[in-house]
Design a protein that fits this description.
By secondary structure, the protein is α/β, with parallel strands linked by helices. The chain folds into two domains: 2-33, no CATH class; 41-197, Glutaredoxin, CATH 3.40.30. It is built from six helices and nine strands. Strands 3, 4, 5, 6, 7, 8 and 9 form a seven-stranded mixed sheet that branches. A two-stranded antiparallel sheet has the order 1-2. β8 (168-171) and β9 form a beta hairpin. The longest helix has 18 residues, at 2-19. The N and C termini lie far apart (62 Å). 28% of the residues are buried.
Length: 198
């Protein structure tokens, strides 16, 4: 009787293993594809030249949605300068933007790109970073790059949206890890993650 029970258990186990779907392999493959997706983006610089993000392979990147007229601009531009000074190997990618909060649109960036460039030069970040064309953050017609980053590194309570200007996304040099930092988080809050990313 005991032998029959043992045989029955073995048959059931073999049956389950034989017909089990390879879900884990598929999930791992999908995750790998998604994390490498950062390098598939192409965005235009503020001067109009198209940048293929494949050039950032092997380099940690800090992606920031900026707004020169925001009350948080001064402190965040200081943070960007400090990061570049202490970690020159990190690529700084700045995206002048408007933020769609559903109930209203936050418009704290200059209307003309020449004015944005001037403000960034005055704040000492233009020459140490790559500045891209102004974009919209959030919403169905928002930036696909920021939608991707928000999905990879959700905010508080798992929110996928960018809540305000100067949300910072740190992408590791292998592209397999994205870390989000809020507008009021600065170098001391980011130090360990920055060191780990490179």
């Amino acid at each position: 009787m005991r032998l029959q029970q043992t045989m029955l258990i073995l048959i059931v186990l073999c049956f389950c293993l034989a017909f089990k779907k390879p879900e884990m392999a598929g999930e791992l493959e999908t995750t790998k594809d998604e994390t490498s997706m950062f390098y598939t983006f192409k965005e235009k610089k503020i001067e109009g030249k198209l940048v293929d993000f494949s050039i950032y392979k092997g380099k940690a990147c800090l992606v920031v949605n900026t707004a020169c007229n925001c009350g948080l601009a001064k402190s965040n531009f200081e943070t960007i300068r400090e990061i570049k000074n202490k970690h020159p190997e990190i690529a700084i990618l700045l995206f002048p933007s408007s933020v769609d909060l559903t109930i209203y649109m936050v418009e704290q960036e200059e209307a003309q790109k020449e004015e944005t460039i001037q403000k960034m030069k005055e704040n000492g970040v233009y020459d140490i970073s790559t500045v891209f064309e102004k974009c919209k953050i959030n919403g169905k017609d928002g930036s696909h790059l920021f939608a991707y980053l928000s999905k990879e590194a959700p905010g508080l309570f798992g929110t996928k949206a960018v809540k305000w200007n100067f949300t910072k996304f740190l992408v590791s040099k292998t592209g397999d890890k994205v870390t989000r930092f809020g507008p009021k988080e600065h170098y001391s809050d980011m130090k360990s993650a920055l060191e780990e990313s490179v």
